[in-house]
Structures are given as structure tokens and as C-alpha cells.
User: Fold this.
Amino acid sequence: MSETPPPPEGLLAELTHRCPLACPYCSNPVALDAPRAELSTQDWKRIFSEAAEMGVLHLHLSGGEPCSRRDLAELTAHAVEVGLYTNLITSGVGLTRDLFDRLVAAGLDHVQLSIQGVDSAQADWIGGYKGGYAKKREVAAWVTDEGLPLTVNAVIHRGNVEDAPRMVDLAVELGARRVEIAHTQYYGWAFKNRAHLMPTREQTDRAFAAVEARREHYRGRVVIDHVAPDYHARFPKACMSGWGRQTLNVSPSGKVLPCHSAEIIPGLEFWSARDRSLAEIWAHSPAFEAFRGFEWMQEPCRSCERKTVDFGGCRCQAMALLGDASACDPICTKSPHHALVGEIAARDSEGPVEDFAPRRFAREPA
Ligand code: FES
Assistant:
């Protein structure tokens, strides 16, 4: 066993995979955890306590839609009690006024609200939920009226790419202190639907420039985070800030993962928070050990001066595109397979958007 790594800063708690929306770019795995497999209230409370003891600072309450959990306020209260900063990542749909009031009373620190489009026709179409857009506007008002900090995030794809700058304006109008505009990252459902979501190179460049211009426009008033379109980038992102370095995910059924997509990598052994402590898993789980540090790297990463910047990029992307999770992320121009990324992007940016597969359980949840 290697020496104990520094403690993680953040925990993403995927409380459930249930969600009223059906966004085709969802980063959840295509094989969703069934409701009957979800951790209990007591399990989650123990995990939050263990996280706080380890030194975790930020708890992201996510899903699926976390508001689908009946015990969300109780879990939030416990997380606050043990000293975690709580961030609710929600679509807003499923959040009632009563639940919101209970979350506020529990001490919730921050809300991150997703938007799917700039009007109800676009947003409700892509999210597969009539009335979703109106509900989000209502929730944003609750949050800002309460004085809670609000982040609004939007995912950009072929169906809304021309509206990217208007998404920024809408987020600001909703009262966001921080806006995240993220070009689709192709994992989970987004990978499955890549051929229906990929914008053309021209659309991407135009949207990117327009969002950058909005960033300048709002500078000093609103922070705008801009997540680059991977397939058109020259260097890979430092995915998860490096595998097993800063964050960990707990899936609805209790699997502790180095990232939301890690289950696509065959041969990794994931330990469960049902059986072991979070600290033990963080320090010694084979899945976390697999790509921690630099020893696992192949060339060109191994001798690259950027390896402490991007940590070789994304392991799941290397797996998905090359079938080798220890390869250099082919997004990188130094990868011998970089040309493949451009070929995929060009091929997948044609054809109808409408034919995407909506995110849903293989069989309806019990
Ligand atoms: Fe798994 Fe990037 S999504 S390492």
C-alpha cells in the first residue's frame, strides 16, 4: 500500500439517480442505480460525518435530482451540523416551497441551479419536462429572495449552441452571482448521444467567442466560468484536478468513485461505503490507487512538462475513445491519436438533434 494521500476537499454525493428531467447530456451512467439500491438516511449521515472527520470542506448534494430524496432536509441539517459547506445541485424541478424552507432552516449554504434553454419551448423540450422552465424561474427567485448565493449553470450542445450568450444573460437576470457555461462533456448519456449533441467547429468557435465577450461585459459584477469544448481543445482538462487528488464521488448505491464516470473503466475495483469507512477507501481503494500520482503514465505524459498541470487529462476519455484508460487523453495535441478526436467531432456534428435518447431508467423505477 502507498502512503496516505492528503485528504480530499470535496465530496459529490449522488443521493439518487431519480430525476424528473430527461436531459440527453446527463453525465450520470447509462446504467442508472435503481431507487431500491439507494443508501439509507443513516448511511448518508455516517458518510457525511466521516467526510468531515477526514477534512472534506465542500459537500455537493447531487443526483439525479437530489430533491427526489424525501430525507434531503434531514441530510442537509446533518451535513451542516458536522461542519460541511453544503451546495445543492438541482434542476429546481421537484423543489417545493415547503422543502426549500426546510433546507434553509437546515442551514443550506448554496444553490446551483441548472437551466436548459432561454425559453420554455427550448428548455422543456431538451429537459423532457413541460413547465420546467417556469419552475426554475420560481426557484431562482426563492433563492435570491432568501439571500442565498446562487450559481446558474447551462450545458451547451447543438440544440442550444447559438443561444450560449443569451444563456449567460438569463442566468444574470435570474440573480446568479456565478454562472457556469459548460460545453457538453461527453460522458454517460452525453457520450451515448454524442452524434446528436456535438456542434460544428464553426458553431463552437462562435459560441465560445460570444460567451467570452459576455464574460468581459459582466466582469466585476458576475463571475462566469467557461468550460471549454473538449473535442475542439488543444490540451486536455485537468479532470477532477487529478485522479484521487481532491475529490471523491459516492454513487446512490454507495460505490465510492474517483469520478462520476469511472465505472466505464473495466477492471477497476470500487469499494463501497456500506462496507468500509470513507477514509480507508480514499487511502487504499484499488480504484483510487490505479491512476493516482504519475507512476501509471505512459509516454508522452510521463515525460511531459504539463503533467503536473493536467495530470494526463481524463482517464475516462482515454478509455472511451482509445480503449486504454492509462493512455494520454487524446484531446491533447501530443497524443498520437489526437487526429481521431477531430474526425469524431466532424462526423458527429451532422444529422438531426431530435433523435437523441432521453435519459431514463432501463425499466421504470419501482
Ligand atoms: Fe473520469 Fe475524467 S471523467 S477521469
